[in-house]
């Protein structure tokens, strides 16, 4: 069964307790279950991972690029958290690995502080899902499934 990698960046392990007015009360475990359920509806397996470390996220993106090329993965749903606005290294990893990425943000970053309005990830993402809460993960998985149907 082909996989969809769901990557969550820094501080997303705090979902459910961190700024619930902004991010909601669902936990990372809830999000991961939503992703597994949505992926299964489309004939895929969701591989969910979270790290607070930029280097680890880069390694996983490199791995995803290899798996996409090998045909065992269709793409990545990636919530880079605050690295969205700071990490040229993640931009370069996505571009260099030729990974198919849907960038995702739980909140509408464009309605927040001005420093959140710029993304280093968007120029190398296949698409972007922003501001739909954790339901956005399901939308991003559906987008990948529509773009790359299970074979």
From TrEMBL:
It comes from the Bacteria. It catalyses: 3-dehydroquinate = 3-dehydroshikimate + H2O. InterPro entries: DHquinase_II, DHquinase_II_CS, DHquinase_II_sf. The keyword Amino-acid biosynthesis applies. The record marks 18 as: Transition state stabilizer. One of its GO terms (molecular function) is 3-dehydroquinate dehydratase activity. Its EC number is 4.2.1.10. Pathway: Metabolic intermediate biosynthesis; chorismate biosynthesis; chorismate from D-erythrose 4-phosphate and phosphoenolpyruvate: step 3/7. The active site is at residues 23, 105. Keywords: Amino-acid biosynthesis, Aromatic amino acid biosynthesis, Lyase. Substrate binds at residues 79, 85, 92, 106-107, 116. GO terms for biological process: amino acid biosynthetic process; aromatic amino acid family biosynthetic process; chorismate biosynthetic process; quinate catabolic process. NCBIfam families: aroQ, PRK05395.1-2, PRK05395.1-3, PRK05395.1-4. Homododecamer. Catalyzes a trans-dehydration via an enolate intermediate. Belongs to the type-II 3-dehydroquinase family. This is 3-dehydroquinate dehydratase. The gene is aroQ.
